[in-house]
Amino acid sequence: METKELFVPISLESIEPVIFPDVALYIKTGGNYVLYKNNGRDFSAHDHERLSKHGVEFVFVSKNDMDVITSYMEEAAERLLKGDTLTSRAKGKMIYQTSINFVDDIFNNPEKSTDLNRTRRLIENLMLYLSDEPDAISSLETVMLHNYHTFVHSLQVASLSLLMHSEAYSLSRDEMLDVGTGAILHDFGKIFVPQGILNKNGKLNETEIEILKRHPEEGFVYLQNKGVLTPVALSIVRFHHERCNGSGYPLGLENNEIPRSAQVTGIADVYCTLTTDHHGNKTMPPHVAVQIMENQMNGLFSPHLLGTLEKLVCTEEVQQFIL
Fold this sequence. Notes:
There is one protein chain. The longest helix is centred in the N-terminal third of the chain and has 21 residues, at 88-108. The strands form 2 sheets. A two-stranded antiparallel sheet has the order 1-4. The protein has a two-stranded antiparallel sheet with strand order 2-3. The chain has one domain (64-318): Orthogonal Bundle (Hypothetical protein af1432), CATH 1.10.3210.10. The protein is mainly α. The protein is built from 14 helices and 4 strands. A hairpin with a 2-residue loop joins strand 2 and strand 3.
């Protein structure tokens, strides 16, 4: 789905010295990847401190080593999130890292989408972080400098969708897991869209737009056929581009015809797209994005849900959260 990279960034703050998997680690210098530690040697606390003092935020691992890295980090996430050895910022980095690793893996290996237990563990950890950290929003920093736009966007949308559902509705734990699962997989259908269209710099022509607009239905059909996602999660994947005035797709549904959770995820999706570009730069402040959605996009979204969004993002405390 994304442009294939030989190396994958790993946040330094999400690495546990000594017990981190024994793989080669690289540092990016001047556009080149320089070997820092070969396999066969532990990544020590001294290594961690040394790199941190030199302002290194990311180390890099080979794409070929990502299976072992992803497995380790997903298994360690719950323990680290519940413990007190990491700061709130570091826990945010852990969630960021495990989430983009997960989405990268699922989108590039669609057959892994059948592992529902893995998906639910990820969402449980995300919910744990969002609920237990007082400054979770400001701490969940998303650094999109490594051509990971789609993967990080999925995390952003899932996080905001969970927060909006928690604010607007009283849902059970299982319902929240369904919401998070659907939200983090909302763009799954883009695996069927040609790279040339996804990565095009200029405006898409009419034919390309029609191809892109197929992604909700194609993602829904693929995941439905796997038979593991709930109707709520599937509805988010299928209907997150429907709009209250009937102008959306794929079915042109209106108002209450659109499942509630799909409406929430659709709002989160548009907000995240408005406020962050493909390079991870903030394109506008939260209050400006909300004003555009309320005025220039009048009639597209539920006023109640727009009010929920505004309550969550238009405060001084969350101005630094890149959504």
